[in-house]
Design a protein that fits this description.
The protein has 201 residues and is mainly alpha-helical. The protein contains seven helices and no strands. The termini are far apart.
Amino acid sequence: MLDVQHLIESGGLLLITAIIFAESGLLLGFFLPGDTLLFSAGFFAAQGKLPLGWLLTLVVAAALAGYYTGYHIGKKFGPKLFSKPNGILFRQEYLHRSEAFYKKHGGKTIFLSRFVPVVRTFAPVVAGMGKMDLRRFNMFNLLGAVVWGAGVTLLGHWLGSKIPNVDRYLLPVILAAMAISFGPTLYHLFKALLRKDKKVV
């Protein structure tokens, strides 16, 4: 699934749209390469292999629909998961905390989560579980879908249009995009593990 060049060449706009939708709100889509795929698709559009207008339209629509779906998944199934007050994994206390958090910080969380792999998949689900105001959710969902979906794609398109003989550099650019996407997440996980080890010692 990480061979984004093959994904784009074999599936085109339809597969790109499906992956962005799944990664943006379906819980099983957390492993999909959203950022890298958008950046690479923009790169391909700069070579004339994808229509930029349709690419941007479908990417933003898929990102919007994915978060909206994730929100309603969380809203419908969240209370059932947290129905027991003293469950081992799902406790009502956690649901109440998420409600309070999203009431106070929900807007910026929904927007910023777009730029963090894995978190992007679960943020709208938790927002639905936390009963975030739907109107507010929709506003930040739209903002995040446009800035992230169109922004990352246009960044790839801009870079692809600036590099001569761009085909030669596609693989290094894809690897760089993956490093930028997952670097911050891996960095924070590594720091958390170090803090945990220090506490154990």
